[in-house]
UniProtKB/TrEMBL annotation:
Organism from which the protein derives: Blastomonas marina
Keywords of this entry: ATP-binding, Nucleotide-binding, Phosphate transport, Transport
Positions of the ABC transporter domain: 21-263
Pfam family, one: ABC_tran
Gene3D superfamilies linked to this entry: P-loop containing nucleotide triphosphate hydrolases
Gene name in the database record: pstB
Keyword Cytoplasm: no
Annotated InterPro entries: AAA+_ATPase, ABC_transporter-like_ATP-bd, ABC_transporter-like_CS, P-loop_NTPase, PstB-like
Region Disordered, residue ranges: 1-22
GO molecular function terms attached to this record: ATP binding
Membrane-crossing residue ranges in chain numbering: none
CDD domains given in the database record: ABC_PstB_phosphate_transporter
NCBIfam families recorded: 3a0107s01c2
Protein name per the record: Phosphate import ATP-binding protein PstB
Keyword Repeat: no
Length: 268
């Protein structure tokens, strides 16, 4: 498992290059209710960014705004600006399907398609035209499963249903499915909350291995997990982002009293 000590060694350095995603003054409403209030944050490519905070604080709502998943909720609306490589993702001319290929999402509960393991991975590349032949598709499937640390466990049963895998394997299958369309950002909404400690450790190792290849944002209720896997942490409370910075600073020397109270268990 990735240890807290090892990841704290390099999280004070500034990210290299411009941010992959930039949010400026973002507020999210569900009808008249404001769920997110004026959040601004940069998401770097080379670090894992964790969102922490008590239940109902808005961290998952904000995460879903990063690939317009809130569009699926009729009463939701987003104010402010979110950019991917400098382009506004809420531009009316933007193709949302293409956006979600570039900004993939892994949900709290594993949700493999009711298809074979192979077809779970091949589906995205097929609909996006990323593989020109069966051999090319086979390569994408194998590469994606290897990156997700699942290939050796399933290579001899690719025709089996994805839903027949264990919970931890299903979650890694969903990560492989997200990787298969060659995304630039991977959003993870509490990806380990339904998993046992051993499966959780495998997912955390996978996040560590994928770091730098993709910009990764993870929502987690576990402060220990945030400390193990991330280099940047944002603390959310009551719809506001209270503090954002290097994970080691957030956990050992937070600047805001509310952050300190949460980290030390005084509330939340």
């Amino acid at each position: 498992m990735v240890t807290q000590t090892s990841q704290f060694e390099d999280d004070s350095a500034a990210p290299s290059g411009p941010p992959k995603m930039e949010a400026q003054g973002v507020s999210v409403f569900y009808g008249d209710k404001k769920a997110i209030d004026d959040v601004s944050i940069d998401i770097p490519t080379d670090y894992v960014t964790a969102f922490i905070g008590p239940s109902g604080c808005g961290k998952s709502t904000f995460l879903r705004s990063l690939n317009r998943m809130n569009d699926t909720i009729p009463t939701a609306r987003v104010e402010g600006t979110i950019k991917l490589d400098g382009d506004d993702i809420y531009d009316p001319k933007l193709d949302v399907v293409q956006l979600r290929a570039r900004v993939g999402m892994v949900f709290q509960k594993p949700n493999p398609f009711p298809k074979s393991i192979y077809e779970n991975i091949a589906y995205g590349p097929k609909i996006h035209g990323l593989a020109s032949s069966k051999d090319a598709l086979d390569e994408v499937v194998e590469r994606s499963l290897k990156r997700a640390g699942l290939w050796e466990e399933v290579k001899d049963r690719l025709d089996d249903s994805g839903t027949a895998l264990s919970g931890g394997q299903q979650q890694r299958l969903c990560i492989a499915r997200a990787i298969a369309v060659d995304p630039e950002v991977i959003l993870m909404d509490e990806p380990c909350s339904a998993l046992d400690p051993i499966a959780t450790a495998r997912i955390e190792e996978l996040i560590h291995d994928l770091r730098g290849r993709y910009a990764i944002v993870i929502v987690t209720h576990s402060m220990q997990q945030a400390a193990r896997v991330s280099q940047r942490t944002a603390f959310f409370h009551l719809g506001k982002m209270v503090e954002f910075g290097p994970t080691s600073e957030i956990f050992t020397n937070p600047k805001k009293e509310r952050t300190k109270d949460y980290i030390t268990g005084r509330y939340g």
